[in-house]
Design goal:
The chain is mostly beta strands and 121 residues long. It has no helices and eleven strands. 0% of the residues lie in helices and 61% in strands.
């Protein structure tokens, strides 16, 4: 069994910062990719940033220069540092990973439960 557990969301004023964490646990053989998506009310889920086998993804223009993804491979954890937050960053942020579990030895996609980020103006 593989789990992704997110933390770090909350309510912050515009211009503030938050740091999200996502830890993968369970019967993990390897992690092929891991990163963050977000979904605002009435909008599609969008990729914010991720580490893949080909390297880090590009940030969308909406967060470029403000958000930074990092990782701690030893802890199977990725972080999303969000600075200069804007009301339009308000969304549920989801961790996503492609993981090969020891149980199946197959690569599968996993999602975290989501963490709410609300930026007030």
């Amino acid at each position: 069994q593989v789990q992704l557990v997110e933390s770090g969301g909350g309510l912050v004023q515009a211009g503030g910062s938050l740091r999200l964490s996502c830890a993968a646990s369970g019967s993990i053989f390897s992690i092929n990719a891991m990163g963050w998506y977000r979904q605002a009310p009435g909008k599609q889920r969008e990729l914010v940033a991720a580490f893949t086998s080909g390297g880090p993804t590009n940030y969308p223009d909406s967060v470029k220069g403000r958000f930074t993804i990092s990782r701690d491979n030893a802890k199977n954890t990725v972080y999303l540092q969000m600075n200069s937050l804007k009301p339009e960053d308000t969304a549920v942020y989801y961790c996503n990973a492609e993981i090969v579990s020891t149980a199946t030895m197959r690569r599968m996609g996993y999602w975290g439960q989501g963490t709410q980020v609300t930026v007030s103006s």
